[in-house]
Amino acid sequence: MLRFGFSTIGCPDYTVEQVIDAARSLGYAGVEIRFLRGTVDLAGLEEFSAARIGETRRRFEDAGVAVVAINTGVRMVSLDAAHRQVQRDAARRQIEMAAALGAPYLRLFGGPIPAGQDRERTLDAIAAGLGEIADESARGGVTSLIETHDDFCRSDSVLDLYRRGASERLGVLWDTLHSYRWGESADEMFGCLGRRIKLVHVKDAVTATRSGFDFALTGEGTVPIASFLDVLEAAGYDGFVDFEWEKGWHPEIPGPEIALPHFARYVASKVRGS
Length: 274
What we know:
eight-stranded parallel beta barrel; TIM Barrel; alpha/beta; about 40% helix; 9 helices
């Protein structure tokens, strides 16, 4: 049975308590943490300090709201050793945070390949770097996931990283909007990556093409969200399907008080048949 959650990128100014209250009142089973109180620097918030993170975990657990993932901006696309070390250090801090919160997943990116940078060397470096982080996170009980994003929207680009030696401990976060706008159907994507897909993001948009997209409230755009849910249900996927409403990056789109209940109503009608 599908479980539904949301990323806090959709409510970037919320506190922990507001996130929990929204999840409980709207029937969401879990949350992915990206923004809180207007920042993505979670390590700088007292709620995630060594002294307070245990209390924060208990607040989520007592409310019955799962912390599904810590969503990082970590990328291993650089060939510069110093920059790669910065990314490893950032990942290490957030692995520790995920483990302390009981979050099973850590989101990573492959990243856009920089113009003028040797493509083959870069792909090898991404495969090695993400694999290294995935192996380290696994030792802490956390599964690292590459999101289908940037130059890795299609299944073949993700599978190429495994062919280049990326660790089998690296899973996939399927961002359905990006695979769709790059021309891959839900059946094709899940057929190629199914066993590797551990987490799913959904969001709607209009004019969703390779060159860009404009966000729309769920069901009001052109993205065939119901087809993604149908494929997941038919495959027996029992993980989280999370609403990623990018209010944190796009302040002009509707706020969480509109978007979060709207998505909850949409999935209730499409999945639960109400």
